[in-house]
Amino acid sequence: MFHTRRTARGGIALGAIAIGAALCASLAGCAPAPAAAPAAASAEQQVLIYPDVEVAENIAYGPRDDQRLDACIPADAETSVLNNGPRRAVISVHGGSWREGDKASPHWRSACEWLASEGFIAFSVNYAFAPLNPFPAAITDVQAVVEWLRQPEQVATYDYDPALIGAFGGSAGGNLVALLGASGSGAWDVGSRVAAVVELSGPIDLGLADGYPDSLRTHQLEYLGCDAYDGCATAAAASPHLQLDPSDPPVLVAHSTDELVPLAHAERLVDALETNGIEHEFVTRDGSKHSLAILDDGLRADIVAFLRAHL
Question: 151-155 long-range contacts, Cβ below 8 Å, gap at least 24?
């Protein structure tokens, strides 16, 4: 692994980390490839570095050892002026087939810091993994994070408006934040409700595994706690597009046209958002990039504008 630093747009330093084609070959949300990756490992995925963002690590949001999050905090309170009002909180949920990954991996740490650099208080979270902890353990943890953020102690510590909480996630994390937004009904400023959702490359219809590699079919079934898709009762409950109602918050859906998770998943979510009259944006990118790998400058700008508009 190596880093090179040079000036990037906005004065941010840019680190180049060599990773393999395996970067997005699973729902791992763009984790670096191992040193023994195939020859295609010479491809690079650039990781933005935000040296002025403060990171508080491994904060407990629950009693279990794996119920931890990192807080990414803007360099100074003035940054919140970017958002034309009180500071907002955004939770960031990593991918990993619901069975691996980490809040502090280089790409997900960078995503957390990026959100903070835009004036949000960002919280990158870990959650229970399958197969030991199948559905609904992961979404229960993500909901617990939002409830934790609404406690007066956290609001006082990090200085954000508890009515203005959004969610950002990619790959398996995209599924979880989409499901978070679809869970419950009514006002977005109570309990585990959120006011805006950004999901990248999420598997949406968990009763659908067409186009998946066999390993991902297996991982998804383990997450659902089922031996086969036929008769898997939890698939519907874990599928965000089937849980939506008209009171749910705005959603930005982003997906590549020819990636690991078929575009049909994003299209099903968008169709359901339209059916329920939920405000949404749908952004696609040509090619096969998955999850955080699709975060080009244009999509970053779209996401920030979306969050500022709805939080």
Answer: none
Domain 52-310: assigned CATH number = 3.40.50.1820
**Strand 13-18, strand 44-49: pairing:** antiparallel
**Predicted confidence (pLDDT) at residue 29 exceeds the cutoff of 50:** no
Helix (H) or strand (E) holding 263: helix 263-275
Alpha carbon separation from 7 to 4, 50, 163 (Å, rounded):
10, 12, 36
Cα pseudo-dihedral 187, 70, 28, 196, rounded to 10: 20
- The Cα 154–Cα 156 span in angstroms is 5
**Which band of pLDDT confidence, cut at 50, 70 and 90, is reported for residue 75?**
confident
Q: With beta carbons less than 8 A apart as the criterion, state whether 254 and 200 touch.
A: yes
pLDDT tens, residue by residue, 246-256: 999 999 999 99
Q: Are 285 and 257 in contact (CB under 8 A)?
A: yes
Answer yes or no: are the C-beta atoms of 27 and 216 closer than 8 Å. yes
Assigned token pair, 301: 């700008």
Dist. CA 169–CA 173, nearest whole Å: 5
The residues near 164 (Cβ < 8 Å, ≥ 6 apart) are: 86, 88, 89, 189, 195, 311
